[in-house]
Design goal:
Structural class: alpha/beta
Order of helices and strands: HHEEEHEHEHHHEEHEE
Low-confidence stretches: 232-236
Largest sheet: 4 strands, antiparallel
Number of helices: 8
Distance between the termini: 36 Å
Amino acid sequence: MKHGKKYTDGAKLIDRSSLYESAEALDLAVKTATAKFDETIEVHVRLGVDSRHADQQVRGAVVLPNGTGKDVRVAVFAKGDLAKAAEEAGADIVGDADLVAKIQGGWMDFDVAIASPDMMGFVGRLGKVLGPRGLMPSPKAGTVTMDVAKAVTEAKAGKIEYRLDKANIIHCPIGKASFGTEKLLENFNALLDAIIKAKPAAAKGQYIKSCSVASTMGPGVRINPNKVGSGAVVAE
């Protein structure tokens, strides 16, 4: 694969054979984010679990201390007092059957979907539309809840969801390059702490197999998997 000059120059700053400390890796990710836009810094974590087994699933959500740097658009499925609470909390659009119909018609101008439990009968019809996009409300992610106002506030503040893909890897954004290393490290630690806490009882051996960070257009930087999170050592 051929890369541009900026990518190639950035890659020269990174020792591919090294496993970096978290702060140093994030500093390199920021330094190699040289695009004309404010690049997102992403984390990729490969876990020692098998996502084919129900008892080894890893999924949850965490509010990043410094947010994501993105203006999050929130859609809420609710009615009555809960709909009013969602609107007051800052939801971008609130509805029930009408919102379901709007999405079925092709409207998808939102980043997070939240639903009250009584609305899931309607929302379930959108499984084939929302599921593949990772937008289906879920109790595990805190997006199916009676406290829709709190869910909206958290989503706007920078709550992100993490989940395994088919290769047992979690991919998550933790902020923008403009945040700087210190704020990105706080967000990184919050995410890794949550992932470590979510370790399934059925998981055996080393849980965090590998970890890397990269900017949107930059090269990946590998992090020592035994030294991630707030001082946790996760090798066994």
